[in-house]
Amino acid sequence: MGGVEILPVSGEAQLERFIRVPMDLNAGDPHWISPLMFERREALSPKHNPFFEHADVQFWLATRAGKDVGRISAQIDHLAKTDPAAPAGYFGMIAAKDDPEVFAALFAAAEAWLAQRGCVQALGPFNLSINEEVGLLIDGFDTPPMLMMGHDPRYTAARIEAQGYAKAKDVVAYISDVPVFTPGVQARLARPLPKGVVLRPVRMNKFDEDVRILVDILNDAWSQNWGAAPVTEAETKHLAESIRLILHPRLVWFLEIDGEAAGFGVLLPNLNDAIFDLKGRLFPFGWAKLLWRLKVKGVKRGRIPLMGVKRKFARDPRGAFAPFVILDAIRREGVKLGITQAEYSWILEDNLPMRHILEGFGARVYKTYRIYEKTLDAARPTPS
Questions:
Q1: Paired sense of beta strands 5-8 and 252-257, if any
Q2: CATH superfamily to which 5-169+370-375 belongs
Q3: Which of 134, 225, 228, 300 has its CA 20 to 30 A from that of 369?
Q4: Which pLDDT score, from 0 to 100, does residue 381 have?
């Protein structure tokens, strides 16, 4: 197709090229932050990422005249809830030169792969699942992304839509300085915790146990959300271990009600503020810069990527107020650690209860990411 060759990724050398495609394409964008290469290698490796234990995944490179000009992935998550009458697969990792032929060739490969495996719908981008990087940036190009959030060229949305994709759902990222709750909320927070409510930080000496507790709450709290897919304990433990360097025990809080773990919240220092100029490399001097910025200079911004309260407590006044109690603990400890700004992401556009909580203390939407969908042609041939 127009001199574009599509190569299924095979082997470490091609995976390295696959990882570097967006780094090369976005080199001129002042707000692009290259991910750490060693982290990307592990995230996209079946040997290291537990997502591959319950998903089928394929990566492709697009080349022209010997140069890499794009990439895409397709994946089927066997734990994801999809309509049995219209099984859905996913595309992701999309990054390509601003060229309609390149986009057409990439999507032809991904869609054919999904259709051949019985999928009649394609959703994305998911990098790689709905529990990781989600959506394509469509608004908020003027600031760099927080850790584990995407950043895409402005032209990408139009190129995807030209392939027949339409909006399925938007997710948003809020940002705020140190939260200032309404007088009514502040008054309630100033009182002693209600009977039966215990607030505690993560127990680093019982880290594995608390990871299991977090997974249990998370999967229950998010189970009815659009596109929900359960997070396995192995996935969460893998993520926890990968971010342990930046995880601070006073920024991870659990709330118990009548002796049962009912809710939690996590704030992570924004790693991107510490790696913005490393160009994905930690050697020879990147490690020293990273550790100094994290442990000595300190990172002033953070992101709350995970938060939830078990559904059984939704009608209990103590459960309904739990998000405020957890956020207040994170706010209080974050201030002590020098955190002056936080992102809350990602939030489904129709998650009005959470949006009202965030907007109630002055947080504002500053980035929007779009998830696209398309009905697939089952007879579409695999591109050569």
A1: unpaired
A2: Gcn5-related N-acetyltransferase (GNAT) (3.40.630.30)
A3: 300
A4: 47
The alpha helices in the chain, defined as continuous H runs, are 11-25, 37-43, 100-116, 156-161, 183-190, 207-221, 233-242, 272-275, 286-292, 317-320, 322-336, 352-360
179-339, what's its fold?
Answer: Aminopeptidase (3.40.630)
Look at residue 380 and tell me whether its pLDDT is greater than 60.
no
Q: Can you read off the two tokens belonging to residue 19?
A: 């990882």
Task: Please report where in the chains the tokens 């300190």 appear, as a residue.
Answer: 298
Q: Which string of DSSP letters, residue by residue, matches 210-254?
A: HHHHHHHHHHHHTTTSTT--PPPHHHHHHHHHHTTTT--GGGEEE
pTM for the full model? 0.94
Q: Do the Cβ atoms of 61 and 106 come closer than 8 Å? A: no
What digits encode the pLDDT tens for the residues 46-66?
Answer: 999 999 999 999 999 999 999
Which pLDDT belongs to residue 109?
98
Rounded CA separation 299/338 (Å): 8
